[in-house]
Amino acid sequence: MFPIQPAIDGIAGFKASGVHCGYKKDGALDFALIYSEHPCVAAGVFTTNLVKAAPVLVDIERLETNNTQIRAVIINTRCANACTGQQGIDNALLMTRWTAERLGIAEEEVLVMSTGVIGTQLDMDKIRRGVDLAVDALADGETAWMNAAAAIMTTDTRPKAASVLTDFRYKETAGYQYHIGGIAKGAGMIAPNMATMLGLIVTDSRLGDPAMAHSLLFEAAEQSFNSISVDGDTSTNDTLLLLANGASADPAVHYDQFNEFLGDVCLQLAVEIVRDGEGATKFIEIAVQGAQGGERQIANTIATSPLVKTAFYGGDPNWGRIVAAAGRAGVPVDPAQMRLWIKAWDADGDGLLLFENGVPTDYDEAHAKAIMAQADIRVRLDCGMGGELVTVYTCDISHDYVSINGHYRT
Amino acid sequence: MFPIQPAIDGIAGFKASGVHCGYKKDGALDFALIYSEHPCVAAGVFTTNLVKAAPVLVDIERLETNNTQIRAVIINTRCANACTGQQGIDNALLMTRWTAERLGIAEEEVLVMSTGVIGTQLDMDKIRRGVDLAVDALADGETAWMNAAAAIMTTDTRPKAASVLTDFRYKETAGYQYHIGGIAKGAGMIAPNMATMLGLIVTDSRLGDPAMAHSLLFEAAEQSFNSISVDGDTSTNDTLLLLANGASADPAVHYDQFNEFLGDVCLQLAVEIVRDGEGATKFIEIAVQGAQGGERQIANTIATSPLVKTAFYGGDPNWGRIVAAAGRAGVPVDPAQMRLWIKAWDADGDGLLLFENGVPTDYDEAHAKAIMAQADIRVRLDCGMGGELVTVYTCDISHDYVSINGHYRT
Lengths: 410, 410
Known about the structure:
2 copies of one chain form a homodimer.
Chain A: E1 14-19, E2 31-46, H1 54-65, E3 70-76, H2 85-103, E4 110-114, H3 124-137, H4 142-151, E5 160-167, E6 177-190, E7 194-203, H5 210-223, E8 228-229, E9 239-244, H6 255-275, E10 283-289, H7 295-304, H8 306-314, H9 319-327, E11 339-344, E12 352-356, E13 359-360, H10 365-372, E14 376-382, E15 389-395, H11 399-406
Parallel strand pairs in A: 3-4, 7-9, 8-15, 10-14
Antiparallel strand pairs in A: 1-2, 2-3, 2-9, 5-6, 6-7, 10-15, 11-12, 11-14, 12-13
């Protein structure tokens, strides 16, 4: 209804900055700050990894006692502050304290995110410099937001931002307008220990109910950031935050519509992460239906199978690997009831049917190869037993993936 | 107690052959037969994949009605006979019928294994030729067995065989002697759709009880073939068979001792599969303890993590990836209670402690790098909560793995 933009040109009441604190080489941006002039209703979704980084632990605890008065998020790269014990917690808290002092707000109003190497302590001289520079650099407008998006990059090759402006003011009975914007960094590794996904969504709409905000964010994450896979690893630092400051001139919100737009922004960011996956040469949608509730597990098994992912890299229509991955997903399926299609991303119709009734169709191999040669490919597997459609997004495993993750420091 | 040999020099009452039926190029061996002059007690362990190949379905059904009178196993490569519907079943049955006719035994006394491409029907002209040639070539002795081991190879770079001769005859009260021998093919892909593990264990001991034979085989498989990982994919064709013909001059068996030797032979074959893993440059033992029953799940998660496997390939001591993999394994762990060591394969003692009390130790980075530079490495993770020790074996993911699986046909 309203188009998703691949950038943020400003969200009322928010400022952003991205600066160089000394972590990255050649003066590259490596430290970001997001600030709201007004208190925000806030929600967070965090890694399910039981090894949680210090900033994750700090944010979880902070949101438990304060999810209506958040004012800022401070973010560093190159050090995950994970596996760092009490000193790591103390350093994360100090980051928020310094930020609060410089902004003239309360420490409890600041959240923190880190991404980078596991098992090393933060360099607090760099962090101190980052806080000072980031506060001084705060601004609204597109440049500030893109600097922030660039500053949280690790092995990402490009900054990731998305936004939507809704405008329902033509409806006289319920006129309202708001922005939703987000930045994210991808499932990239950083030298040498991490694969962190960080996402931050801000809106100038008014989300009065923190529990509802959390529910909306959780649902949006399920359909976006939790539906993508680069290599199946879950980091210690994965964090997605939502801040709503109600600063729009017409900030009223209808939750069902907000839900849709929030989902669009999150999906755009998530898709960008997969497209920029380490070494990725192909973008693959995997849609699974008819598995009586096991659809997501099957889709994830296919999306994380090294055999499937290398097959896509090679451009071969190796559908047997897809069927075999479905068969080992741990949920009941019957190959005789399966149907499998592939098609080019923008092709109409169902695509090319490869497998049906337990045997391959007499499909045209040249046609299948032509589809697999595309950069963007859709796979659809119907397990034939009824159930919803679940869609996940993944990329291939290439030689560059191995180079990036095997030889990063060499 | 008795050394494991990397070959088979003959098992009383068994004959073997490996011939060229026309599937592989350049006349390479591609069709194998194992024959017993006496009826065998037999047991099988099969893929857990719900997409089961025709030969797997045939063997499962056959062993249900006949597990005391098996005489032969016929094996082809280059075609998995999977996703082939009723025609695939008919062809697998025909393979056993032709074999039985040529050997002068009953069809129900023959088992069958296939490995190769998913989704294509067997070339029954080649199979017919293979049966005739394989029966004619049957012989005892090392050459025949190594031909069989070579004939079942796919992307394996070398044949895999192991055997042990037990000799308890010095014990006057319980004198007995028997051979256990096995051949296997590895978690290699074959153009382009498969990653099949096939294993066949034969013994001239007397296993009177088929249920006990199955129990022994299942347990041995758990500690060997089910404790290795190359890429985490489970094929449609994985099969491990045990045949016992009681043809030894002193074939009595003590099950507890047999269990140990069977385990040794299976482990030797399984380790050979990992060492010959596609593109593998390193062999890694992952031992996990103290996770209150979750040890295997953690060990498997570590062993199948692309991040862990590429880190080993790069030779970097990226222990954070190991801890993070443990944290996402889906079982309760507390990083503060974990301890993680690495050491060279043949080093004494615990090795180098990298992580303890939730933080890295002050280990020597050069020492850690020197260990990671080894070809054979041991990792030990103690989760600190009590529980058994589970050991799994894996290899790294290299550029060659991607080449083999991505570009096999190109």
